[in-house]
Every structure is written in structure tokens, then in C-alpha cells.
Write a structure and sequence with these properties.
Chain lengths: 110, 114
């Protein structure tokens, strides 16, 4: 079973920041939080991952709460091309296993 | 550089027939993964290859499913005696090593069993 909980769907206006929440209340100390997205009819695309510190790359920012029980993926200036299903996954470091949930369908509206 | 490629992109077959799905990983990647994705669902792990080690087949749903990886590169997923419930998107991913490395996915093969 997936170890994360995400809202099934969200809307966001184009140009605004999209904030996608994820609960992982049973996360262990050696588990990372990974985010992937899947644009319609394509394979999943890696976005970002983190352990306990906030992370930022060219695609997004990842904010992890101090107790590590939840996190938020931030797309700072959403575009129509960001419409996709976003998956939050916890992964034991040095394990290849990714346990996928149903994700959040993010719709960016003009 | 080239990403993960899969073929065919779409496959329609009749119940009871065998199918073969192919995956070409990113050059130099030693780890290769197969997943299955049913409509509206997350990904279901099927099998994992890492270098010359014995593959982890723990996710294969039945003995009708098998996979091989020749020469440490190309992989083929075979489904024998296909059933309608096998209809799904089959995704392949590779990573530079196994363990903690980021997995890069191919576009998938959409299988429809009639």
C-alpha cells in the first residue's frame, strides 16, 4: 500500500504558484520523499526529492515539515504544460522500491 | 542524450495470444525496471534488473509474466496467454545504478487485450 496521502485533484490559475500537499505520517528516518509527475499519455518524470531539508531545483521547490510527516511541492509559476498527475512517494534510501499511490491531478487553468 | 525507449507504443491482441514488449534503457544505465499502470491508477512494480545480479521478480502477478535482459541492456517483457485483465500501460525505467538513483521512464506500451 502507498505510504502517502494526496488530494485526488486540484486546480490552479496559470501564472500562479501551485502548492501540492502530501501527507506521509508514517515516514521513517531513512525514507526520502520523492515527487514525480505524469503528463497525459507519457511516462512519469522525476521532479525533486528530499530527506528533511527544503530543496529547490529548476522545476520546483519541496518544503518538508520539521516533523517530516507532510510536505508540499511548489511549482512557482504554473503554466498550462504543468497540467499532469503528481505523485508523492516515500522511498527507503538505497532501495529501488517506489510505492505509487493514485497521485493528485493538477489542472492549470488559463 | 537519448532517453528510455519502448516498443511497440501500442499493442492490440486477442485473449490467449502471447505478446512481447521491448525496452531500451539509457546507455550506461545498469538498473532496469518494469511497471504496470492500469487506467487511473498509480504504477505497480513488476520486476527489477541490476547488472549481473539475479532479478527481483517479486512483483510479477503470475507465471504468465516473464522478463529477460540480454547483455545488460535491452529488456523484453513477455506475457503468455494474455487475459483481458492484462490490459494496461507497461512502463520501463532505468537508472544509472540501482538503489537510490533517480529512475527515468520511457513512454510506455499501451496493451489492449480483446
Amino acid at each position: 500500500d502507498a505510504k502517502t496521502t494526496q488530494p485526488p485533484s486540484m486546480d490552479c490559475a496559470e501564472g500562479r504558484a501551485a502548492n501540492l500537499p502530501c501527507n506521509h505520517s508514517t515516514i521513517s528516518g531513512n525514507e526520502y520523499v520523492y515527487w514525480y509527475r505524469q503528463i497525459h499519455s507519457q511516462g512519469p518524470q522525476y521532479i525533486i526529492h528530499g530527506l528533511k531539508n527544503n530543496e529547490t531545483n529548476e522545476m520546483a521547490s519541496l518544503i518538508i515539515t520539521e516533523d517530516r510527516k507532510s510536505s508540499t511541492l511548489i511549482l512557482p509559476h504554473a503554466t498550462l504544460r504543468d497540467t499532469a498527475v503528481y505523485y508523492c512517494i516515500v522511498r527507503v534510501y538505497f532501495s529501488y522500491q517506489l510505492i505509487w499511490g493514485a497521485g493528485t491531478k493538477l489542472i492549470i487553468k488559463p | 542524450g537519448a532517453g528510455v525507449s519502448q516498443s511497440p507504443s501500442n499493442k492490440v491482441t486477442e485473449k490467449g495470444k502471447d505478446v512481447e514488449l521491448r525496452c531500451d534503457p539509457i546507455s550506461g544505465h545498469t538498473a532496469l525496471y518494469w511497471y504496470r499502470q492500469s487506467l487511473g491508477q498509480g504504477l505497480e512494480f513488476l520486476i527489477y534488473f541490476q547488472g549481473n545480479s539475479a532479478p527481483d521478480k517479486s512483483g510479477l502477478p503470475s507465471d504468465r509474466f516473464s522478463a529477460e535482459r540480454t547483455g545488460g541492456s535491452v529488456s523484453t517483457l513477455t506475457i503468455q496467454r494474455t487475459q483481458q485483465e492484462d490490459s494496461a500501460v507497461y512502463l520501463c525505467a532505468s537508472s544509472s545504478t540501482g538503489s537510490a538513483e533517480t529512475q527515468y521512464f520511457g513512454p510506455g506500451t499501451r496493451l489492449l487485450v480483446l
